[in-house]
Structure formats: C-alpha cells, structure tokens
Amino acid sequence: MVAQGFKKVEFRVPTEPPKFTFGQLKAAIPAHCFVRSTVTSFIYTFLDILGVLGLYYLSTFIPLFPMQLQYVLWPVYWILQGGVMTGLWVVAHECGHRAFSDSILVCDIVGWILHSFLLVPYHAWRISHGKHHISTGNMERDEVFVPARSSEFYKNNKHNINYEPPSVLFMIIETVIFFLIGWFVYLTTHVSGRDYGKKTNHFLPSSPLFSPQDYWHIVISNVGIVGMISLLVYASVHISFSWMVFSYFIPYLIVNFWLLLYTYMHHTDVALPHYPNESWQWLMGALATVDRDYGLLWNTLHHNIGNTHVLHHLFSKIPHYHAMEATQAIKPILGDYYFESKESILTGLYNNMKNCRFVDDAPGNKEFWFSDKPVPVAQSTKSE
C-alpha cells in the first residue's frame, strides 16, 4: 500500500518492462479479429442511423402529451438520442483509426460525414487523436488530459499559499462546466493537451498540431463543420430554433459528455502512471489505460469502447465487433498489466476528480503517479 496524497492506493499498474512482448500479444489474438469487414461496419453504421432516425420520429409525438409528461419524455429522448449518436461517433472514430474498412477512402468518406454531423472536425481529430495513441501516457507528447505537475504548482506559487483540496460543491460545479464546454475548449485551445508553446487548435491548418501536408485535410474538415452549422441555422430559421435545440443540440451535448467521459475515465486513475519522456516506452504507455464497465445498454450502444479500451490502445485497427474476443485472448498474457476497474462510473468519476489533481513529477522519478494535492519534492514518493 502506497501513500498517494491523502489517498491510499491498493493497486498500481506495473511500470517495470513486462516479460511478454507485443508480438506475443498479437499472436494470442485469433487472426479473424484483425479482419476489417466493410459490409459489417456499414451494417453497424446503418443500425445506428436507424436508431437516430427512429428516436427522432418518436420525439415528434412528445408535444402531443400533457406538459407534465413532456418534462419526463424530453430528457429521456435526449439521453437515449445522445447515447445512440455516440455510437455513430465511435464508428467515425474507428474510421480515423482505419478500423472501419481496408479502404482508406471509404474510412475517410464515412468518418468525415459522421463526424461533421456531430460537429467534430474529422481529419483534425483523426490526426491529434492518432498522436495521442502514439504517445499515450507521455507527459511531454501526449495530446489529451496531460495531468497538472506538482512542480508547476510550486513554481507558480510565489506567495507560498497552502493548497486547499476542493470542496464537494466546487467539484460538482467544476465537473458540470467540464462536461458542458470542455470539448469546445479542447478543440479551440487544445487545453489539457501537449504544450506546443504557441496557439494551438483543431481548425487552423497552421496549428502546430498539423504538418504542412495536412493543410487540405484540415480545410476539408472545416468545410464539413461549416456545412453542418449551415444546415442547423437553416433548420432553426425555417422550422424553429427550439426544434433544433430539442431535437439535435441537446443530444449533441450528450455526445460531447460521453466523448469527454471516455477519454478522461480511461486515462485517469490513481492506479495509472504517466511517464517523463526519457523513461516512456510506447507499450508501457498503452498499458497505462483502464477498462470500465458502463452496463449492458451503454456498452452495446457505444460498441464496447469503454470495456475494451486497453485492447484499443494496443491494437487500434481491430474493429469493435472483434474487440471483446480479442480482449479475452490477451488478458491471460497481460496479467497484472491489465487493469479493469470495478468501481461504478459515478464513484470512479468522483474519485478521479478528487484524487487525480496532480502528478508527482519530482526529479529522478521514472514514472509519475497521481495525487490529490501537489507533492513537494521533500515528500515525493520516489520510483523504486
């Protein structure tokens, strides 16, 4: 048991190099799991689209009910529609990983259409998310949810103010703001991602996120976003603004909630390490992830993206319909390197928001662990 800020940590993902190799993991997975079937991928896509259209059709009857019942039916619609639309986001996300089809062209057409519908800049997200997979857990080069450093807190704390843990009320407000606008802020400022030392966002081709050869990809992504926004404005004017908000925009915010929840919850836990660049290795970074069970409904609607996330970071080109089988195949080899949290999602979210506020980045540490408060160098838990 290791003291971690105010938190006692019962388990940590091992950080010493494993005895198994990446090749052994790959060999353990049945060969058919690596097969990407364009037909199968389209079937799942059409089922998701059918779900979105079916729920929208049912929502047109909600105004016919008494107002008291509408107060219940609209939130039910928003939650379910946002959940089904998140399934479309997962499919688009697989297009970016080239897991949808052997054809890059098919992946890019489907991914661009679906992500544009969800107001996600497809190629920009594909590129930055790909960099996240290449550098997962690397404190200098990861592109999302890079933790705050203890050293930065003390460097900027010129008045020697004692750190006060946030209250429950503060964490609730912080969490609501995070899920409400966090995705917009990330796209426009790259907050929580790698610090490039200058303005960084997902819409400017000149952003340091991208290479010169990405220019037209970013332009095409922006065209998709502008086109979707134009359709929403047209619908707001010619149908009604409230229709657009109730039918699309609120479910869209639910999608953003799920996107942030998955990204945050699968890379944040007191059991997961981050690494300085000099001691980081790709395999160890990929293993510094966690599988979480979201229940049968959400696991199904979201194509098991949450409960097969470790596999996804090891083999991102395996399509979702093979992910469960492939996960079961590698678990015996991974052993303690496979981390599956048994916490409920709400409990895990609370614990992460409370206990994962800084990492202990004292000089000499080969890995950085989460803490619920900034750790002075004198109190740092050194790597053993």
Describe the secondary-structure layout.
Blueprint: E1 2-4, E2 7-9, H1 22-28, H2 38-59, H3 67-96, H4 104-117, H5 122-134, H6 150-156, H7 168-189, H8 215-238, H9 241-265, H10 282-287, E3 291-292, H11 295-301, H12 309-314, H13 320-334, E4 340-341, H14 345-355, E5 358-359, E6 370-371
Parallel strand pairs: 3-4
Antiparallel strand pairs: 1-2, 5-6
Helix pairs in contact: 1-13, 2-3, 3-4, 3-9, 4-8, 7-9, 8-9
Based on the model shown, name its key terms.
disordered N terminus, mainly alpha, 384 residues, globular, 14 helices
Summed up:
Helices cover 54% and strands 4% of the residues. It is mainly alpha-helical.
> What count of structural domains?
1
Q: For the CA atoms, what is the radius of gyration?
A: 22 Å
Overall structural class, as computed from helix and strand content, comes to mainly alpha
Can you list the strand order of the major beta sheet? 1-2
Count of strand segments: 6
Would you identify the regions where 5 or more consecutive residues have pLDDT less than 50?
1-6
Number of helices: 14
Main beta sheet, described? 2 strands, antiparallel
Shape: globular
The helix-strand sequence is EEHHHHHHHHHHEHHHEHEE
Q: Averaging pLDDT over every residue, what do you get?
A: 94
